TrEMBL record:
Main location (coarse class): membrane
Subcellular location: Membrane
Residue ranges constituting the Sodium/calcium exchanger membrane region domain according to the UniProt record: 37-191, 226-366
UniProt organism field: Branchiibius hedensis
Designated name of the protein: Ca2+:H+ antiporter
Assigned keywords, A-Z: Membrane, Transmembrane, Transmembrane helix
GO terms under cellular component: plasma membrane
Lineage: superkingdom: Bacteria
Membrane-spanning ranges: 12-31, 37-57, 69-93, 105-126, 138-158, 170-188, 223-241, 253-272, 293-316, 322-344, 351-368
Record membrane topology: Multi-pass membrane protein
An example molecular function term from Gene Ontology annotations: potassium:proton antiporter activity
């Protein structure tokens, strides 16, 4: 029997309704302007509020449509933010912008496959000692991420058709088509014939009855309202992040970090909603949902972002350098290797969570101090 929902304020009086709408107000007055410290702080607060509101509305929509469809909602929404930010910054950026897509996508892969996975495993195992998940679905997701990352981010470093870590036109088209096909096949696998591979399981590898997890799903009207406010939140996040992009670049330069660290900050920002949702799911002993979010977001970040960026590169004023450096390739190989060892047993403890988190910390440290 489903849990009864606690009394709640009317939809239009909740902070999740007000936050994204308020965030849109300063956009016309701050867009393209040089901001002082006070306005930078105000925009930052509104930006965080919009991100948190996006989490709440995405979870409401996900609850209505159910798993594993719900995990796709936030993954696709976050990819929209990522693509918009990358294209905007590449258009307005200089020579350094040629690697922005690579830096952001690779940072997203490292954050999802190590940060979200590690934090979820750690949060779940701290509360439940050992966490269980479906090997078939999780292994398929990890294999898809590894294939996409290799084709789109590793191979450009070794191809000979163009100078530098860059695809030729035909190679870029092939990588874009490959990305779309692999991501599309995964979504079909996750949502149709093998849907049960991506649903939570218990210690006996039997599907868990998820009807006990939540209150009754929201009404259709509330779900559509949440979907609309999710879109408003995403617009606010993209707009405010663009306003904050110049202060972020100036802050990175002031700290003495390489310009590529801007990609790390963008990835952290756009993945905040999924990180919070994944940790919340893990604390409810639903680590499979957390892994769906992590690996699904990683796939969407590559499989959807690269094709769009490839198309946009026709008009972009800078070349598109996608190939990873040697240090990044080593970090990717370590991530895949540890990920396989984590996934194969179908259960994990705090140790696996800590290992993934330390790989993320090493990535962030080396991104700031290459």
């Amino acid at each position: 029997m489903a849990k009864s929902a606690p009394p709640r304020h009317p939809f239009w009086l909740r902070w999740t309704t007000a936050a994204p709408i308020l965030a849109l107000i300063p956009l016309p007055f701050t867009w393209g302007q040089h901001l002082g410290p006070v306005w930078i702080a105000i925009v930052a607060v509104l930006l965080i509020g919009s991100v948190l509101a996006a989490v709440q509305h995405a979870e409401a929509v996900a609850h209505k449509v159910g798993e594993p469809f719900g995990s796709l909602v936030l993954a696709v929404a976050v990819t929209v933010i990522e693509v918009a930010l990358i294209v905007t910054l590449m258009v307005s950026g200089g020579e350094d912008a040629s690697t922005l897509a690579r830096d952001t996508v690779f940072a997203a892969v490292m954050i999802t496959c190590n940060g979200i996975v590690g934090a979820s495993l750690l949060a779940g195992s701290i509360k439940h000692d050992t966490v269980n998940f479906n090997v078939e679905g999780t292994a398929t997701a990890l294999a898809s991420v590894a294939t996409l990352a290799t084709v789109c981010l590793v191979l450009p470093t070794f191809t000979l058709g163009a100078p530098g870590p860059e695809f030729t036109g035909s190679q870029l088209v092939f990588a874009a088509v490959c990305s779309l096909v692999i991501y599309g096949l995964f979504v079909l696998t996750q949502t149709t014939r093998h849907r049960d591979f991506f649903l939570p399981v218990d210690e006996n590898n039997e599907l868990v009855d998820m009807s006990e997890d939540h209150a009754e799903p929201p009404s259709t009207r509330s779900a559509w309202a949440s979907f609309g406010l999710l879109l408003v939140s995403l617009v606010a996040v993209v707009g405010l992040a663009k306003v904050e992009s110049k202060p972020i670049e100036e802050g990175v330069a002031a700290l003495g970090f390489p310009h590529s660290f801007v990609g790390v900050i963008i990835a952290m920002l756009v993945l905040l909603p999924e990180s919070l949702s994944a940790i919340n799911a893990a604390r409810r002993d639903r680590v499979q949902i957390s892994l769906n979010l992590a690996y699904g977001s990683s796939m969407a970040s590559i499989g959807l972002t690269i094709p769009v960026i490839a198309l946009a590169s026709i008009w972009l004023p800078v070349p598109l350098h996608l190939g990873l450096g040697s240090m990044q390739i080593v970090m990717l190989a370590l991530t895949v290797a540890v990920g396989i060892l984590t996934v194969v047993p179908g259960r994990a403890t705090r140790m696996q969570g800590a290992l993934h988190l330390w790989i993320l910390f090493a990535f962030i440290f080396l991104a700031a101090n290459p």
